[in-house]
Amino acid sequence: MSPVIPGFTYHRVPVADGVSLNAAVSGTGSPIVLLHGFPQTHLMWRHVATDLAADHTVICPDLRGYGASDKPAETDGSGYAKRTMAADIVALARALGHDRFALAGHDRGALVAFRAGLDHPDTITHLACLDVLPTLDMWDALHGVTAAVGFHLYLMAQPRACPRS
Q1: Fewer CB near the terminus (10 Å): N or C of the chain?
Q2: CA 57 to chain centre
Q3: Single pTM value for the model
Q4: Which of 42, 152, 21 is nearest to 89 (CA)?
Q5: Which residues pair with 127 in a beta bridge?
Q6: Edge-to-edge, what's the strand order for the sheet holding 9-16?
């Protein structure tokens, strides 16, 4: 059995053609969506989510490509773009009955959240981006010794034909 957040119900929600997201949901009140980072899943929010569920409807999805969510094959370079993943999150919230919601993301989830805020300003009521640098700034800063700490980021930026873990 997969680990779960106690007190949360789990849903598989279709968000795009051939893509469904796994989402843990609990609570009542104004909705907040919590997006995990790399290489985590929705479970990274388990302690915060249970506290927030006392006053809010909390939605913790696994992003496309992570955890129990679908992992579609990349076809044109846009399947895992932050814009595509942001659209997934908006579709998820709408499918769960929420046209507007607060959004918090950590690391990679923060980049998806930021994109959602830019693309869907009438949908996102509040936005929190945690533990992330804007991508262009990150690539400018990672040189020499500082690049050694983030070596894995260079591996993920390789062309599709390169082996990946």
Answers
A1: N
A2: 17
A3: 0.87
A4: 21
A5: 103
A6: 9-16, 19-26, 57-61, 31-35, 101-106, 124-130
